[in-house]
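Continuing from the previous page of notes. For each protein in this section, the sequence appears first, followed by its structure tokens. Read the first protein now.
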Amino acid sequence: MIDFSRLHAALTNGGNAFASANPYPHIAIDDACDAVRLRQALAPIAQRLEREMQGSGDLIFARNKFVDSDFQTIAAELAELREDLLSPEFGAWLRELTGEALFLDPAFYGGGLHAGGEGSFLDMHTDFSYHPRQQSWRRRLNILLYLNLDWQESYGGQLQLQHVDREGEE
């Protein structure tokens, strides 16, 4: 599912783009996965979203969304994505990107699939730094994969990284 050749090319072509990015080290890689296969997972995700939204309440900083850390059960394509994310090859790529020996939480606690229906939002927030169930685990990196088919900038919702000491700066 993950196009590892594209990930490696991003390292080769981007040099130290990750390390020098502001306000935090980050990198954006378009088409990091097989787009056709990911599109096949959209219908089961939409069905799940419709079921989940019927009884969904509002959260403090999010509305009309669901989170599923067991996303591999939704579609075979998502199961393949999960396997790739937990693979030794992806771990080696993360080490090459960051210079750190990182690993992914195999339970995807606080992560996994986040999906929102019409009118959903997710306000600016800070994710936890220390794993709530594994206190010796420190979150060093977030991996975001957007599955917004035909998303347009006019919809809003662009990713915004902001340092807490520099409120208002982008």
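Done with the first. The second protein uses the same format. Note its length before scrolling.
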Amino acid sequence: PTTFLLRRLMDNPAFQQDFISRFCDLLNTVFQPVYTIARIDEMAAELEAEIDEHTRLWRAPSAFKVWQNHVEYLRSFARQRPLPMQAHLKQYFRLRGPVELTVASVHPHQGWIQVNSLLVDASPHSPWTGLYFMDIPVTLTAVPAPGHRFLGWQGRPDLNTPSLKLSLTEAMGFTAEFAADPDA
């Protein structure tokens, strides 16, 4: 009964694609161990000063070291979780891949790139890379900074629109080019 709505929504192919795309976006960002562990560390630092008092009052956890072990368990879970999540998506929805998508902006101060729901920080020196499934289209959008305009996708003269809907068949890379807009 608690999953009725989600199960019914999954009958809709458009919703299913959006669900998988958003899940991949999250796997490439907030579910990444570096991000999740930073949040765990942030919360642990906030609670650490209170644990001794909590243990004295409630006798749980039984010792400060036990609490530290629980926090380390969370870190370990965060490190290990993304791959099984990705494997589950692949198996459950019968997907192919994943494949790498790499995006960059020639001059990051002139514009950014949005990958599905993510506005990514990508420059030629530090491109953004994520994993996506072959069967699920990915939308790339070049977003010019104020006072700039989109010129094109570097090395791809056939692609001249700022927004692309791609079906990845292999690892692919896209670099957006922007320029100052004298009419802005």
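What the second structure shows: The helical segments are 4-9, 13-27, 33-58, 64-80, 82-92. The chain has a mean pLDDT of 93. We return to this in next week's lecture.
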